[in-house]
Each structure stands twice: as structure tokens, then as C-alpha cells.
Specification:
The chain is mainly α. Helix content is 75%, strand content 0%. The protein folds into two domains: 99 residues, Orthogonal Bundle (Rna Polymerase Sigma Factor, Chain: A), CATH 1.10.1740; 87 residues, Winged helix-like DNA-binding domain superfamily/Winged helix DNA-binding domain (Arc Repressor Mutant, subunit A). It is built from eight helices and no strands.
């Protein structure tokens, strides 16, 4: 059966459980991806994803088709991920865990690990308003207009936040790279 989103949404709003299930299955990977990239942690992403799914099920009857369903879903996922970050701020954390993804490249394992940690750290050090727009735009490929809809801000504000976020990431990464080079020189020497 073909995926007809508008028909499934209408059916789900009338209480059709299989329509709700199909919508959740269709969006699950997108939801998890947003939550993973915003929270920076698989456990927190799983929690935020579950909260998103629950929120969709509870609120689908009140969904207004004035916005795209995908935008509504992304907004819920983004808010759930932000809520999880806020909860996490009240819990003890570790600096490095087994969830860290190591990219496979021609670089040495050490360089790949350092690059991944630097990017993750720099992203997590950004204020929420910058981290969210950067994840949505650069990692998920969301348009400026859709980011504006998701976050309920003007497209100009989105562009400004992205520019400022990229500048802060650049500053953070350049600072980390110079620090890493000094550490490597000391260890190699």
C-alpha cells in the first residue's frame, strides 16, 4: 500500500490505530536522527524519541493541517530533545561514553576519534538556539523556511542563528585543534 500522508493523518485523527502506527513507523528514523543529533547521546535520544512518539499519539487529534505534518513532527522531536537536554543538565554526566560514533576514513583512528570528539564537544557547547538550527540545517538538511516553522521563528532569524552558530563552531574547533596539536607534540616528543 502506498504512503498517503494526508489520508493517514485524517484517518489517525479519527482514531484509526493502524494509521497512527504507519505514521510513526514512517517518521521514526527522522525523529530518532533529530533527537540523536540534538542530544548528542543515544540513551537521551531514545528517551526523547519515545517522548516524541507519545506526544504525537496524544496530540494527533488536534493537529491542524495548516502546517505540514512533517514540520509538526520535527517540532515535537526538537522540543522533546531539548527537554531531554534540560533533564540531563540535572543529572551527572560523563565526558566520553560508548555511544560516541567514530567515522571510518583514511585518517588514523586517533585522528578520527579526536575529530569526532571535537565536533561533538563543539556542538554540545553551543547554546541551544544555535545547536538546534545547526543540526536541523547542516546535519538534517532542513530548509530555512521549515526550520523557521519548526522553531516558530522568522527565516531571517534562522539564517542569523546559523551564521553565528557556524562562527562559534569554527572558533571552538580551531581552539580545540591547536590544543590537540600541542598535546600530540608533547606525546610524540
Amino acid at each position: 500500500m502506498a504512503f498517503d500522508e494526508s489520508q493517514l493523518v485524517a484517518s489517525a485523527q479519527q482514531g484509526n490505530a493502524s494509521a497512527v502506527e504507519r505514521l510513526l513507523e514512517h517518521y521514526y528514523d527522522y525523529i530518532f536522527s533529530i533527537c540523536r543529533k540534538v542530544t548528542g547521546n543515544i540513551d537521551d535520544a531514545n528517551e526523547a524519541t519515545q517522548e516524541t512518539l507519545i506526544s504525537i499519539v496524544r496530540n494527533i487529534p488536534s493537529f491542524k493541517s495548516t502546517a505540514k505534518f512533517s514540520t509538526w513532527v520535527y517540532r515535537i522531536a526538537t522540543n522533546a530533545a531539548l527537554d531531554e537536554i534540560r533533564k540531563k543538565a540535572r543529572r551527572p554526566t560523563t565526558e566520553f561514553n560508548e555511544d560516541t560514533v567514530i567515522p571510518q576514513t583514511t585518517k588514523s583512528l586517533e585522528d578520527s576519534l579526536i575529530d569526532n570528539i571535537d565536533i561533538s564537544d563543539a556542538l554540545q557547547n553551543l547554546p541551544e538556539e544555535f545547536r538546534i538550527v545547526l543540526v536541523l540545517r547542516d546535519q538534517l538538511g532542513t530548509s530555512y523556511e521549515e526550520i523557521g516553522e519548526i522553531l516558530d521563528i522568522a527565516s531571517g532569524t534562522v539564517k542569523s542563528r546559523i551564521a553565528r552558530a557556524r562562527q562559534k563552531m569554527k572558533e571552538e574547533l580551531l581552539g580545540n585543534k591547536s590544543h590537540v596539536r600541542v598535546v600530540k607534540e608533547v606525546n610524540d616528543g
